[in-house]
Amino acid sequence: MLRALKLEPEKCTGCLQCEMACSYENEGVFNPAKSRIKVFTFHQEGRFAPYTCTQCEEAWCLHSCPVEAIVINAETGAKEVLDNVCVGCKVCTIACPFGTVNYNQDSGKVMKCDLCGGDPWCAKACPTGAITYVDVDSTGLDRMRAWAQQSPAGPATHVEPRPKEIATYNRAQ
Amino acid sequence: MAWTGNVLRVDLTSGKIASEPLNREWARDYLGQRGLATKYLYEEIDPTIDALSPANKLIMTTGPLTGTMAATGGRYSVVTKSPLTGAVACSNSGGFIGAEMKMAGWDMIIFEGKSPQPVYLYVENENAELMPADDLWGASVWETDERLHAKHQDPLIRIACVGRAAEQGCLYASVVNDLHRAAGRSGVGTVMAAKNLKALVCRGTKGVGNLKDPMRFFQATEQGKKVLAENAVTGQGLPKFGTQVLMNVINEVGAMPTRNMREVQFEGAHKISAEAMHEPRSDGTPNLHTNAACFACTIACGRISTIEKGHFTIENKPKYWGASGGLEYEAAWALGSDTGVDDLETLTYVNFLCNEDGIDPISFGATVAAAMELYERGVITQEDTGGIDLRFGSAEALARATELTARGEGFGKILGLGSLRLCEKYGHPELSMTVKGQEFPAYDPRGIQGMGLAYATANRGACHLRAYTVASEILGIPEKTDPLVTEGKAELVKAFQDATAAVDSSGLCVFTTFAWGMEDIAPQVDAACEGDWSAEKMLEVGERVWNLERDFNLKAGLTMADDTLPHRLLEEGANTGPAEGRVNDLQQMLPRYYEIRGWTQDGELSDDTRRRLRV
Questions:
Q1: Residue A155: pLDDT band with limits 50, 70, 90
Q2: A30 vs B68: CB contact, 8 Å cut-off?
Q3: How many folded domains does chain A comprise?
Q4: Beta bridge mates, A72
Q5: Is A48 within the bounds of a domain?
Q6: Structural domain that includes position A58
Q7: Secondary-structure class of domain B239-432 per CATH
Q8: Helix (H) or strand (E) holding B198
Q9: In the structure, what pLDDT confidence band is assigned to residue B285 with cuts at 50, 70 and 90?
């Protein structure tokens, strides 16, 4: 089963455990500045949002690389940077619409999420379940369930039709 | 290891900045942060100096676990001599600045002297530079943060700075980092401003590594996180309710200091409690917007709140319409119960102002409470207050007093002196609820006897974070003791003081100790740090730190006469609740405490104690 990182900003507290796990796994130090996953804080809105590569199927970074340094890991679906091939030209950083591949001035190469070979440390480190590693075909399952719960059919215990709630639901749509 | 091994020394007088190696020998005895910085201060300054003179030093310091994945490993402290108490000051803060300092490669930054002009320190890894801050002088913390981010064009810099209160000489000004976390107590911000130092701006990209045994570190920290997650307080209570979880609990046991500690229960507690922060308001939203974590914290007790739309405090003031740091228990108590104000929205506004301009809400709230008592007694009038009708319970008066104190204007300038100097000024020192000149936190020691001893002997003046015996006496952590009994409390206070000093020296947050014992903490330190860090060794470090702080204070001129409580708590019985009629029986505990501390009857370190602890 192919899996994907599922990010749920509403569960994030901004603790940066994910950034430390990521940087330690990849660089051997705790260093948010070198993390492939980033948590953004929107202070005035009181919101935190983790963000990283979604592993596009038709990956812009991969297609734009002039030396074919970005390859697909068939097992995980991750687009991985081959450090020994990358020349640090940064074209991929321009091509990526999401900004999730970045240059690392210490190594002279680009870095991006590689799903830690199928065992992403960020997901393991997240204390609130804001980052999970789930079936790639079902990342929307929880959200679907939440909407389904509000659907007019309602819980099974409702034997009487409830026209008022149906009207509310329709308006919300 | 785990330490970066580098200290940045900044001579503000000459503008000279130098790097020096960390004193490893001291680190073995004092670990880091609170302990190690206190050792530096103890060795480098004359304790009798004027705290606001250039001879004082200000140390921003991290612990060995700061900047690591250990849960809550993001703490830093500001250590200096306090202008409020004349004693040693050590104020601890979370947020992100401590970890950023560490990522930049520094265990501590020592500021010396006084800059001829306002400056701020910009640190980017090994590059450190003093930059002019003339244009930032007179700006609030929030404004300073915004302008520095704009100037450096770098969204990832972290900032710790002082606001207008510190510049204006408010004696309990804090150093605020990341907009709403603060090294809050004892006036450490006042010292920073007296040095003409507006801010520390930091960006670190080097990371923290070099652990003694990485695999063991991951196992130990993983296990620690599990314990925190499974504990009712750190896993559920604190994330959901924050420290405010205590409001109703403490009120019920009759230990909620109310109206300048005249009473011990507040009838409005339920209106300003954690539960109230969850209640929907007229606009449908609750006061609490979300919880938030400091760096590496898996508890996330931080509160992010909004003020109700249209509330009188924020009319035509859009800068307060967004979310920001909400009420912690101490702030809610000091600003609310102690002043008799039960309007949650006003308290949130006042808390925003405390962050915006860097004042300690505990000392400020308690000072307002003392002023309110003076006002009600007719000792001060509207002539003194500049027209403020400073009655207990007046939300308008509290809001106005805060605005003035934050900016150091009018009567706010006098409130900025703190409760003791205020009460002395008007001839009623007995109405000041302080120890060593520092205002009490939110636990009445008549209803929690051990806290009386903890307050009286706390090295930085009245403080709940030096020995939180509330944990044992009320919450039953690690085991329940009777809050109304004095027997055994000397031992309890000493144990909490030593353990807390060790935790404060590690880079971890003391809130972990609701769930963690030293046997949970020591393995994390031991896996990271060179040397042998057993639980016993950690407690020995804690005891050493405590004695060193004590010795600093004695050298600064404090004596056993300062180990006391205000008359009100020793002579006037609690008026209601389970502790009705009780006073704090300090004298039943203090001699025993000196004895088990290995101090003389005069509260001085005995020669044996000095030798044993190498102080």
A1: low
A2: yes
A3: 1
A4: A79
A5: yes
A6: 3-150
A7: mainly alpha
A8: strand B197-203
A9: very high
> Three-state DSSP class for B202?
strand
Domain chopping of chain B, boundaries: 6-203, 239-432, 448-613
Query: What is d(CA B110, CA B93) in angstroms, rounded to the nearest whole number?
Result: 17
Residue B339 contacts residue B390 (beta carbons within 8 Å):
no
Residue A167 domain-assigned?
no
pLDDT of residue B16: 98
In terms of CATH architecture, what is B448-613? Orthogonal Bundle (1.10)
B208, B297, B300 ranked by CB distance to A30: nearest: B208
Test the B interface: residue of A8, A11, A12, A16 with most B CBs within 10 Å: A16
Asked whether residue A109 is domain-assigned, the answer is yes
Asked whether the beta carbons of residue B300 and residue A15 sit closer than 8 angstroms, the reply is yes
A34: CATH: 3.30.70.20
B153: Cβ–Cβ under 8 A, 6 or more apart, which residues?
none
pLDDT at A150 (0 to 100): 85
- In total, the C-beta contacts within 8 angstroms joining chain A to chain B are 86
pLDDT tens-digit series, residues B454-501: 999 999 999 999 999 999 999 999 999 999 999 999 999 999 999 999
Interface probe, candidates B101, B203, B208, chain A, greatest A C-beta count within 10 A? B208
- Predicted pLDDT at B183: 98
Superfamily of domain B6-203 in CATH is Aldehyde ferredoxin oxidoreductase, N-terminal domain (3.60.9.10)
Cα B363 to Cα B380: distance, rounded to the nearest angstrom:
20
Q: What is the pLDDT of residues B222-264, one digit of tens each?
A: 999 999 999 999 999 999 999 999 999 999 999 999 999 999 9
B207 at A interface, C-beta within 8 A:
yes
Q: Which residues of A touch B207 (CB under 8 A)?
A: 23, 27, 29-31, 33-34
ω before B478 within 30° of 0 (cis)?
yes
| 3-class DSSP string for B439-486 | ECCCCCCCCCHHHHHHHHHCCCCCCCCCCCCHHHHCCCCCCCCCCCCC
Q: Cβ contact (<8 Å) for A31 and B294?
A: no
> What b/e sequence results for B373-409 when a residue is b if at least 16 CB atoms lie within 10 Å of its CB, and e otherwise?
bbbeeeebeeebbbebebebebbebbbbbbbbbbbbe
The 10 Å Cβ neighbour count of residue B550 is: 23
pLDDT at res. A154: 53
Assess whether pLDDT exceeds 60 at residue A170: no
Calculate mean pLDDT across residues A45-59: 96
| CA distances from residue A158 to A124, A145, A170, B234, B545 in whole angstroms, order as listed | 40, 18, 18, 38, 65
Kindly state whether residue A161 falls inside one of the protein's structural domains.
Answer: no
Contact present, B177 and B160 (Cβ < 8 Å): yes
For the stretch A32-40, contacts whose Cβ atoms lie closer than 8 Å and that sit 24 or more positions apart, written own/partner, are A32/B99, A32/B103, A33/B103, A33/B156, A33/B204, A33/B205, A33/B207, A34/A104, A34/A106, A34/A111, A34/B205, A34/B207, A36/A100, A36/A111, A36/A112, A36/A113, A36/A114, A37/A113, A37/A122, A37/A131, A39/A12, A39/A14
From B323, which residue of chain A is nearest by alpha-carbon distance? A44
Inter-axis angle of helices B361-376 and B395-407, nearest 10 = 120
* Residue B157 at interface with chain A, using a CB cutoff of 8 Å: no
A141 to chain B nearest CA, in Å? 24
N residues, chain B:
615
Proportion of chain B above pLDDT 90, given as a percent: 100
User: Nearest CA of chain B to the CA of A96: how many Å?
Assistant: 21
Asked if the Cβ–Cβ distance from B296 to A47 is below 8 Å, we say no
Which 8-state DSSP code applies to residue B605? Answer: B
Residue B5 CA to residue B530 CA, distance in Å, equals 12
pTM assigned to the model: 0.95
The pLDDT of A145-151, averaged and rounded, is 87
Which residues in B lie closer than 8 A to residue A29 (C-beta atoms)?
206-210
Q: What average pLDDT score do residues B398-422 get?
A: 98
